[in-house]
Amino acid sequence: MSPASPVTRYHLVLVTLHWLLAVLICIALGMGMFSLSATPNSSPAKVDALKGHMVAGITILLLMTVRLVVRAVTAHPPPAQTGMAWADRLGPLAHGALYLGVFAMAGSGIAMAVGAGLPQIVFQGVGQLPADFHHLPARAVHGLVASLLVLLIVLHVAAALYHQWVRRDHLLARMGFGPRR
Ligand code: HEM
Ligand code: HEM
Question: For ligand 2, what atom is nearest to the CA of residue 149?
């Protein structure tokens, strides 16, 4: 892409995946925190809840991987400016941290599932759930990264709204649908 003609929006596939994943990730975080971890493993509803969460988590992992590839091979708008050097440096770091956080959630979730034998218990009906998952180190990582990810998402949304409403630079349009020039 020639620097003389920068694109004004992210690629259509990236935009679609951004909004689809934003919804899926928020649902996985909300259901994980408020429903899944609040349901004891002794409850008859737990296996189905785990099944839904694991399928959603793996779907998120696959879509995030596609997104990372599309991000690497498509042109992006030039970095957003805030007029504050520290904030301009923080933006790309925060975007990287969002990717890292989601991959860490998927990785620790899979490690926890494998450690507890969940693939067999949940998808093949073989064996029983342990009393809980708290003996697994990956459970602690999953819980901690979930809280960090929520914090990052809140900061990310606040930054986007600051651009949109305070700086009035139409940042949201860069992650919107429409012509790219
Ligand atoms: C789970 C929720 C979200 C995640 C994980 C997420 C992640 C990201 C990432 C990683 C980027 C960098 C572009 C890329 O590499 O794809 C990005 C860009 C962007 N996001 Fe989000 N996002 C989320 C929710 C939101 C929400 C709710 C809004 C709107 C308020 C939003 C507005 C934007 C905008 C405007 C950009 C473009 C920023 C720029 O051009 O520098 N995001 N998002
Ligand atoms: C990638 C997106 C994912 C997100 C956003 C997510 C989110 C969450 C959250 C917020 C919790 C509750 C944490 C707490 O309250 O401390 C949780 C628990 C859990 N997640 Fe995930 N998760 C994801 C992926 C996965 C995957 C891929 C698996 C397994 C294959 C998985 C398996 C589990 C298990 C077994 C629990 C524990 C439930 C319990 O303690 O009863 N997660 N997840």
Answer: 5
